Each structure stands twice: as C-alpha cells, then as structure tokens.
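User: Some background: our group keeps a shared notebook of sequences we're curious about, and every so often someone picks one and asks for a predicted structure to add to the entry. Today it's my turn. The entry only has the sequence so far, pasted here. Could you supply the structure so I can complete it?
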Amino acid sequence: MIVAFDLSGVFFNNGMKIAVAEISRAYNLNPKDVEFVLDGSFARKYRTGLESPEAYWRRAKERLKAGDIGRIRGIFFNSYHPHRKTITFIEKLRKKGIKTAYISNNPEDRTIYLDRKFSFLSLFDFGLCSFEAHVWKPEKEIYRKFLEKFSLRPDQVIYIDDKEDNLGPAAGLGMKTILFRDIGQLEEDLKKAGLKF
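Assistant: Of course. Here's the predicted structure to add to the notebook entry:
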C-alpha cells in the first residue's frame, strides 16, 4: 500500500492562509485579490508549469500593483513550514516498509525553495507536483498521471488531503481517501483502512 500525502495543509502548515493575511496587511491589499493571484485561476499556468516562475511573478507584480514583488514572493514561500508530527509519522511508516508519496499543487520555484530549506522531498519515496503534471488538483487527470508515472493501481493508494474537493476525483479513480484534520485522526483512519504500522 502507498500512502500519498497532499503537501500544503497536510505535510506543511496552511501557509497560504498566513501568506494572504501578511501580504494583505503589509501592502494594504484585498485578501481575496491576493489569494486569487497566489492560488486562484490567475496562478493556474504557474502552478501547472505552463508559465515560467519569472513570467508569473511579473504578471503578479502588475496585478497587485506591488513595487517589491520579491518581498511578496518571500512572504509567500516563508509562510510554509512542515508539521513536526507529520514528519515523525512519515518516518514511522517508512521504517515499517510502507511507501510514502505526495501529490501536490506546488509550483516549481516554491518546491525548490522549500526543499532547500527543509529537505522534505527525501522523506518521500516518490511524488508528483502540478508543475510536472501540467494539470492540478482537483482535476482527475493529475491523479491518473500519478498512477501512470509510478505504475500503480488505484487500489494500491491511500490519498490524504485537507480539502474535500481534492478527494472526490481520487476516490472516483478507485483510490482510498482520507480527509486530514490532524495526525492523531490520520493514524486512526489509516488503521481503520487496514494499514499496520
């Protein structure tokens, strides 16, 4: 069995919420506008690798009318940190021989930045980000590409996400799914799903 994690909100904290609040305060911007630029359809090409990070941040600067887009990018990236309990749990699973993976809407530059800062990719056996797949969650195609890339059957995967909208398409392909609330609940739900660790 493969245990596949979402990153933002499951492995990492909800950095988006923190980033939106801090950027909105610092630049006197509407939080909805900031979230749209960072995580809405405005960011789709950026997050799916169909636009370079440089081109995206130029567009973001124009859209937000912000002079210092580098500072905004820094706030965005630095709002994320891994949950210590999740790291410990992943290490526990891997010691028991259970493979771990990730499926994420992470853009390329943030993935590189956070891996340099936290070396988190090495905690997983494998994974797929939206910038590699050129599609993003909750589109069913990203889950299909994950299965194809790693030669997996849907019934071999338990997928964990903190957003219910992201679970439906995975379940529709035949994956087992768990809505994440906290690490204690996750451990219980994985045991109920028949995982021994």
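Suggested note for the entry: DSSP finds eleven helices and five strands in the chain. The longest strand covers residues 99-104.
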